[in-house]
Each structure stands twice: as C-alpha cells, then as structure tokens.
C-alpha cells in the first residue's frame, strides 16, 4: 500500500484531517492497540485508526484486566474495521490488506485475521485452528477450545471424548459477528473467550509444552485441576469490591451473578406471550402515550426572529424598503427550540411478588413508553433485575459448608437483564420484552445493586439530561441474606445508593407498584391498582422531561 505522501508533514496533516472528519470529534489514541509504534503511515493504518476512533466504545475495556485487554483490543479492532469497511467502500479497499494492520504477536495476529474474515462473512483463508504441535505459539487455539470445553463440562455431564472440536472458536466468533453494531453485546459474547485466552497465553511456557507433548493424560488431569482454581479477578470485579467497601456493603461471592441481554434467555414462547399485550388495555395506554407525545412536542418552544435579511416577508416592515435609508431587514423566520438532549432508563423489578397483573401492565406501559420516547427522539434503556435462586442457593450453601463467620454479605446470585440498550432500536428488540411476562425468572429483589448498576450505565451516557425511573413493588429482600445479616442489611445499602444517585446529575424517581416505597425514594408515585401503572409512568416521564411545565402545574 503506498504511503499517503512523500512530504512527511503533509502526510501527517492529511492523516489527522481524515481521522477528525470520520471520527466526528472523538478522541484519538496515539497508535493502534497491538501494533508496532514504528508502522509506516499508509492509507490502511490511517483508516484503521480512524475506524477505532469512530466506533470504539471506551467503557468496555474497563471490564477486563490489563493482560486480558490486549486480547480484547484484537477482537475490538476487527469489529470496528469491519464496520468501517461496510460503511465506506474506499476504506474497505484500504483495510483489505491485513498485513498493514495486523498485530505483531503471532497468536494475536492469527486471531485478528480470522476475526476480520468471519466478521465480514467470509470463509477464513488460513486455518483457524493450527495443529497443537505448531511452533510460534500456534497451539493456543486448540488450548482455548479445550479450556472452553472444560467450562462447558462443568455445567453438564461429559458426553464426548477428549477430542478437540476446532469449529468452537469459529462458532464463538460467529456469535460475536451478530452483535457488531452493539459494543456491549459484542463484548458479552466474547468475554469468556478473552479471559481464557489471557490465562492460556500467560501460562504457556516451554516446560509446560514439553509436558503436554510427553504425557497427554497427565496434561488433561492438570488442566482439570487448573480449571477448578479461581481465576484472577477482572478490573470490573475489583472496582465492584471497592464500591462495596465504600458503601458499607459486602458480597459473599459473585461467581454465580448474571448480566445478559434478554435474548440470552428469551424463547419463541416469550414472543408469543407478548402478543397477549394487544388487549383492550392497550387502547387506554395508547391514549396516555399520545398525550405524552403531544406534551413533549408542545414543549418545543417556537418563536420568531425578526429583522432578518432572508426568510418570510414581514409585511409590517415593508416601509423600510422605501425610506430614506432602505434596508433589506424586512424578513422573519420561525425558530424551534428542540427537546432537551436526554436519556431515560427504566429499571423494572422482576421479583416473584411482581407478578400477574402488575407485570402485565408494566410490560404494556414500557412498550408504549419506549415507542413514544423514540418518536420524540429521546434515547431510552430498559433494564430488569431479580435473583437467580430462592433461599436454597449455591452461595448460601457454600457459606454454610465452610462455616464462615457472621455477616457474610449478600448470599444470593443476582440476575441483571438488558431488554434494550440506549443505542438499540425498539422494533428490533421488542420481542424480548416477552421475557418480562414470564413468571419463572423472578425470585427475590436486591434493589441496591440493581440501582447502582443502572446508574453506572446511565452515567456513562453523553446526554446532559439523565433520568432513571424505578418500577418496584416494595422493599429489597432476600431470605438467605436477611437470615445471615439482618433484614436491614439490604435496606441500608439501598438508601446509600439512592443518596449517591440523588447527589449525581441523574434525576431519580420511583413508581411503587403495590407497596409504598416512599420510605426509600424522595420522588415517588405509589400505584394502588395495576391499571394505574401506565398512567403514573407517563405522568412521571412528562414531569421529568419537561420540569418547567411540572412546576407551573404544581403552582
């Protein structure tokens, strides 16, 4: 690939101009992750840097440790360069020569090339899984697959032989290719693979390689033992521990915690259940949604700008054309003030008590609320929370077995559900809302951690106006946690989190569906009947998005 120009200053100037133009003002890294700092500036490297600047989400790498992040960067580069190639044919041509942008490391280079080809819906031109005995670190794909299979066998009984299925890696990358437009879903789909890559590559030494070659049975036993050892905590877990200590909170273990998009659990039966929302209730809720939409549209203040040199002719100023000092300022135009740039997060309690009619009306209200907000060009995120188990759960069982002292902290595994991220269109993810109607996922509710999780996600948004609305049916409660720590343990934590959120730029409000939650939240609306959920939700949204109107109505 030829260089941009023989004039070095001119070359750097053109490269910087293109990066600024394509990246729409995002900050530029000094160099591409995983590449040599002395790479020649070619059209391919400039386009790769511009693609990273345009498409990379800087919040996702924080989930990994420093060593894991190098593997994440390889797959993230493949993602952003694939998106750039799909958007502009010229960039696709410049990025087609992978030799200009490939990492120097042999293992990472192989992963990068295969990922680029798979993300572009192409068959890999080179073997995705080199033979285990290959040199220069080429045994890593087979070892990755073996460790991934080890993790899968922990969840189900082993039924297959010890052979290595080389298609597993391609399958993992193929799943990630379905989420190229969503950086968080993309990272979620590859998180296990990235962790395993870092562990395997870090432990790969000549002595271990020789041992594997001479004693296959011994190596498999050793890997079984290593798989049972706890892995090193990621940066996200370390930050969570720091938050817990600062909040006077404790978590016994996070091993069984879950955070996934609703598509991880959704089934065709959930989509069928969602059709049940098309009932007579929908007519009333639709009326409320239209009322909110009209209220938001009316908030766009319109006013005239007079004495302009172009626009619509202002008949009251025509005399200026024939006066002693003629002027062309006889026009006017109408100016509209847009709605505030806002992002709304709806956090829904999915515990067992939030069931039946309440859950039905909450799903119906959320469906039309998100549609209304999108129509008004307001970004929205829908999240859910509950626990994975009842009182008889693995964390509590482990705590009782080891005889740990009193006050162990949270003794259940949390389940956090992402129904819709702020970037996803509702029409694409709406079928997943059927999972909210399912009775089985809900057990207990640990509101403090869910509120902290939702507030962290919202705080990373760039919109200046941030709104978080919680739909809950009462106080936080988990039987195992309450028995070991006292009933007030979760309630104290929730109050601390609420105080933190209210001190932040986030506008927090709650809708209590059944019980009064005013003893926790300062801005709260209590619903005594399930049919009032939609009305309260739309009322709260309107007051928070248009505070001036709410103040006038209160006065």
Description of the structure:
By secondary structure, the protein is α/β, with parallel strands linked by helices. 48% of the residues lie in helices and 11% in strands. Strands 1-7-6-5-8-9-10 form a 7-stranded mixed sheet, sandwiched between helices. Helix 14 (357-375) links the parallel strand 5 (342-349) and strand 6 (379-387). It is globular, with a radius of gyration of 28 Å. 36% of the residues are buried. The model is unreliable at 1-5, 129-138, 155-165 and 203-233 (pLDDT under 50).
The mean pLDDT is 74
Helical coverage, percent range: 40-55%
**Uncertain stretches:** 1-5, 129-138, 155-165, 203-233
Number of strands: 10
The largest sheet has its strands arranged as: 1-7-6-5-8-9-10
Strand content: 5-15%
Structural class estimated from helices and strands: alpha/beta
Radius of gyration: 28 Å
Shape: globular
- What profile does the largest beta sheet have? 7 strands, mixed
What gap, in angstroms, lies between the N and C termini?
Answer: 69 Å
> Tally the helices: what do you get?
21
List the helices and strands and how they pair.
Layout lengths: L7 H16 L19 H13 L10 H22 L1 H7 L10 H14 L20 H16 L11 H11 L5 H20 L3 H9 L1 H13 L6 H12 L11 E4 L6 H7 L6 H18 L3 E7 L3 E2 L17 E6 L5 E8 L7 H19 L3 E9 L6 H9 L11 E7 L5 H4 L17 H13 L5 E8 L6 H7 L2 H16 L2 E8 L10 E4 L5 H13 L1 H8 L1
Parallel strand pairs: 1-7, 5-6, 5-8, 8-9, 9-10
Antiparallel strand pairs: 2-4, 3-4, 6-7
Helix pairs in contact: 1-2, 2-3, 2-4, 3-4, 3-5, 3-8, 5-7, 6-8, 7-8, 9-10, 13-14, 13-20, 14-20, 17-19, 20-21
